[in-house]
Every structure is written in structure tokens, then in C-alpha cells.
């Protein structure tokens, strides 16, 4: 039963798409303020009580004021675009120059306020989005230690999967973003990925996740891991919503040289590529080795997805072999780049915090070991042991090998040899391959395991700036199958 202060808009908002929300606001049936309040009430019921999802780490105290201002602007000038008045959550390694903190889930940065918005956040605000809050994550985007549970941080505690709170894996490291959108705490969220950190929680929470080409979305204002692999991307309940959000955050940034590679390669509207018949005539390759590692019930779901694509007119080449996979399993590049990138970021942190380098983070954690080192910090200390100059022979060799084996004789060679539009992977299996190449992937819900109801997605991967093709393929599969079902839990 609803309390009198809760907006009675469930039928308009629950599981609604961005397009549906815009139509309701255009028709006067919904306001941005009511929409924002609805999501806050959902958080009140389910984030820290009831199923205790623990997905949202911090709420923007100005969210309702921002929403009201956007309602006034809509009435006076009309909407800015498809995100006008739409509440969006951000992973807590993305800077916001407001009253919220940016911590990467670390107690060392629990009181850190960024000086300005990340470039992607500025773009979202300009598009009229309501920045609703920050989501919990695997601490330091899962580059702190080994064997830390997905979705755990010393600052935020443990994120829980709405499809099986306390029972099913949340995926990581963008666990809070995934769980929050699955639980309808916002219309959409932004996650970040270095290797699987958007694809994994999107698959685990029955969402659409896009890991964009490195350089399509600016990396500036994001707490980093790897200069050559980091990117941010959408996590949504539908392919169309993901396309809208990607269009809003993609663009050139003078502070990020990688974005210059995307000049003239960003379409005006990614939704223009959505085609229900988009799988007809497509050629898709199946690296069967990744599918054989799955449990029987999940492998059955993946095989059913392949059958559905065949029925939709795709030619599925099964199997295709990706050579030299053992050559791309190393995390050496991330280890060496982390110290350089993080030290540069921490130079901008408030001097009063006393956290200006990776060494300072390690020291802080040791001084507060009971709270900070539940799972250790072996990756932090390993990174600190590098030179911090990127002159190390091991680093230079590892980076050259990664690009060669992931691009030249990896994705590029396999797509060309078989004349493929994309490769198919289960969930985030194989995520290291496009991650090291800097290439894009899109994951889409493909069903739920018969044994325990765990969600799983199927992932489309191709070459740099192939997002339009991947969106077309993913949309056709989504529209033909409609696998996503919302989680059910009681407060």
C-alpha cells in the first residue's frame, strides 16, 4: 500500500523505457520531479531494507530541485532531447562537481569531492538528464586485490543481485549500476569497463550493457585503471535506451586525446541503426571454446540464442577459432598503467585529504586495516612496485603483444577470414579480447538458468567504432526474444 507522499505513477514508470517516460511527460501525465521521487521511494523500500540491494551509495541532494527546474524548462522552452528530465545513476568512480563524493568505493577517498564534472557527466547534464546519485562498485573497479567478491567495497559494503539477493553473483565491477537498474532505482546508469566490468554486471542483472570503443566516450574525470583499456558506457533495460544514452555521452574532449580517434565516426543518432530485421543476412562467428566452459543449463540458453538468430536470418558460423588466446590473459598492462594513471588523477584531489598517490592509498589502507583490508591489496602493491614511468621493458613488450594478439591476429583476422559482422560470446566470457583491443561489445539478456534463475546475456563483439552494427544486431535479437523479466522481491 502506498503512503500519501509516494507518487502514484507505478503504471507509468515501472520498467518504462526512456521513450515511454518522455511520452508520459510530453502528455502531462508525468513530471520529472514525480519520476525522480518515484525512484527515490524505490530506493527507500529496497536499497537498504527489504532485500537490501545496497546498489546506490549516495543520492544527489539536489536531484529533486534539478528535476523541478527541468519541468519548468520543458513548459517554457520544450525538452532539450530524449534525456530531458530522465534520472541517471553514475558509478562512483565518475567525477561530479557537486555535493556528492567520488571514491571508487575506497574509504581513502570517502570524503573526496571532485572539482568538476567528468566530461561525460557534463554531456548528460547538457542533455537534460537528472544525475540522481552514485552507485556502489567493486572497490577500485576490481583492481585492488584478488578474490574480492564482485560488488564489495570498504565504503559501500556488498551489492546484492535483485534476482537472488545474497544468493546470485552481482557481476563486477559496475555491480551497483547493474543492480540498481535491474531493481528500477533509475531509468539508466553509467558503468565503466577495463575488462568485463560493464558486460559482467549487465549479464548478471538481465540488462543491456555497451562497452564502447576506447575513445568514443571521454575518459577524463574517471578514476582510472588502464590508459589503453578504460571506457565508460550505458547500462539499461533495453537496447534503445542504451543507444540513446550512448549518443548522449559519446563525443570529442580536448582533455582526452583518445577521443580524437572518434572524429567523424560518431553518428548523430544511434537509434537510427535499430532494425527489427537487423539479423537477416548477418554473419556471426561462435568461438565455441567459451561456450563449452558454461554449465549445461547456461550452454543450453546460449545454443537457443544461436538458434533464434538463425531463425531471424543470420548465418551462424560455429565454431570459429581465435588463435593465441593464451597470449592475452596477462594483466601486466593494467598493472603498469594503473600507477601512472591513478597518480595523475590523485594530484587533483583536495590536498587536505592527504591522498595524492597510490603509495598514499596503500598507506591509508594499512593504517585502517580492519575496515579497508578485508581482502587485502595485492594488486595495489604490485602496481606500486612498478617504475611509474612506463619505460619498463615488461610493460612495453606486454602492450605490443596485447594489441597484436587481440587485434591483428585476433578479432581483425577472424572477422576478415570468415567475413563476419560480429563474434558472439556468452556473458563476459572472452571480454579480455575486445578489452585489450579497445574494441566495442554489447550484451543483451538471453534468459535465466533453469537451476537457480541466474540471468545470462549474449554478447556481440566487433572492430573499432562498429557500435552501429552491434546495436542493429542486438536490437533484432532483443525484439524477437524479449527475454528480460524484472526481478520480484518484497520489501
How would you characterize the overall build of this protein?
The protein is an alpha/beta fold and 491 residues long. It has helices spanning 10-13, 18-26, 32-46, 63-77, 119-126, 139-142, 175-182, 199-204, 239-249, 288-291, 296-311, 332-346, 358-367, 369-372, 378-384, 393-418, 432-437, 467-481; strands at 56-59, 87-91, 130-135, 152-153, 157-158, 188-193, 208-211, 231-236, 283-285, 315-317, 422-426, 441-448, 455-461. The strands form 2 sheets. The protein has an 11-stranded mixed sheet with strand order 1-3-2-6-8-7-12-13-11-9-10. The protein has a two-stranded antiparallel sheet with strand order 4-5. The protein is globular, with a radius of gyration of 21 Å. The termini are close together. The model has no long low-confidence stretch (mean pLDDT 97).
Secondary structure blueprint with pairings:
Layout: H1 10-13, H2 18-26, H3 32-46, E1 56-59, H4 63-77, E2 87-91, H5 119-126, E3 130-135, H6 139-142, E4 152-153, E5 157-158, H7 175-182, E6 188-193, H8 199-204, E7 208-211, E8 231-236, H9 239-249, E9 283-285, H10 288-291, H11 296-311, E10 315-317, H12 332-346, H13 358-367, H14 369-372, H15 378-384, H16 393-418, E11 422-426, H17 432-437, E12 441-448, E13 455-461, H18 467-481
Helix pairs in contact: 3-4, 12-15, 12-16
